Amino acid sequence: VEDDHFFCTPDDFRAWADGRKVFVMEHFYRFMRRREGVLMDGDAPAGGRWNYDQENRKALDGPPAFPAPCSFPPDALTREVLADVERLFPDLPGTTDGFDWPVTPRNAARAADDFLQHRLPTFGDYQDAMWTGAPWLSHSRLSPALNLHLLRPHVLVEGAEEAYRSGTAPLNAVEGFIRQILGWREYVRGLYWLTMPEYATRNALDADRPLPAFYWTGETEMACLRDVIRQLLAHGYAHHIQRLMVAGLFTLLLGVRPHEVHDWFMALYLDAVEWVTLPNVLGMSQYADGGLLATKPYIASGQYIDRMSNYCRGCRYDPARATGPDACPFTTLYWAFLDRHRSRLDGNRRL
Asked: Which of 118, 160, 212, 349 qualifies as a FRET site for 254, CA 20 to 30 Å off?
């Protein structure tokens, strides 16, 4: 019996991939849009463009004022489970204090409605933004409910398109949200089933350093990593740019063994399930698959983090400096990474 919490079966993906020398998520995404009739006006994409990603990279000018997501105080059963976790695993990182996630299909549906009504309209513009002490911004907070089968993705895709058709959310927000679900989520699952178990052994950059100990505590002078890791320890959550361009970027530039990075993600994120975490970490974040998932390594200096957040304003390091005592470790490691992998990256036209 096929899992009805996805649009695409492993056999569907295998048929799409058959005969292709290179896999590109954008090509798969357009195939799925056409097949499912999502955000289509006849044979053309709604609005005349397939992708509005260029419009979805705004930074915040000041402290965010987005509507807070739904909160679900633990019921009796959830309180019992939280007490068991505290008793059985007292030394694990993180905390059960403040747990307020949806744990039933009914609450997950309520959380989905809340997002579609109140935060989807601003999701597109600010989906890449980061701000100290603001974990949610306009993000849906629905990935744990999706990956734990409390919520079907079809409900979100249909609800988001309805928001666009009814004029309650702009196209760039709706397309960006649907791309994450109908595009990326389905794509990484397809690649997982197509390439496993060999995929799990990949380490194309020969990364061999251990994961820094502060990844389990947040005790670091780097303000961006300190905020993201402490947020993660408090909530079991960080949004996709915090994962890719802060936590994952540092380990990529440093040369941490990708399987240790994957183990860390699996241990701390509420939405972590191997089929989605392994391709996202080894492929998208750490480039350990050599470019099968992503056509380039997602690398940047500290100046990217400075542009997209307020982290650097409260940091002892200067994101514009690559050398000296005040040099940002991200910026130093960025140039070292390019030098270390020059021969591999010289032919990549996307860099």
From this structure: 349
Other CB atoms within 10 Å distance of the CB of residue 43: 6
10/193 Cα distance (integer angstroms): 6
> pTM for the full model?
0.96
Radius of gyration for the chain, computed over Cα atoms and rounded to the nearest angstrom: 20
- For 255-270, give the secondary structure using H, E and C: CECHHHHHHHHHHHCC
Which residue(s) pair with 256 in the sheet?
209
CB under 8 Å to 67, separation ≥6 — which residues? 118, 119
**Separation CA 116–CA 312 (nearest Å):** 32
Listing DSSP states for 108-165 in one string gives HHHHHHHHHHHTHHHHHHHTT---TT-S-TT----HHHHHTTSS-HHHHHHHHHHHHH
Reply yes or no: is the peptide bond before residue 197 cis, omega within 30 of 0: yes
Whether pLDDT at 347 is above 90: no
pLDDT in tens, 113-146: 999 999 999 999 999 999 999 999 999 999 999 9
Give the C-alpha separation, 216 to 226, whole Å: 11
pLDDT of residue 11: 97
**Structure token digits, residue 185:** 């989520």
**For the chain, which residues make up each domain, given as ranges?**
10-195, 203-343
Question: What average pLDDT score do residues 13-31 get?
Answer: 97
pLDDT confidence band for 97 (50 / 70 / 90): very high
Q: Domain 10-195 class?
A: mainly alpha
- Give the Cα separation of 130 and 113 in Å (integer): 24
Furthest C-alpha separation in the chain: 59
- For residue 320, what are its two tokens? 């514009």
Q: Are 173 and 121 in contact (CB under 8 A)?
A: yes
What is the C-alpha separation between 54 and 175, in angstroms, rounded? 12
Residue type present at position 54: Q
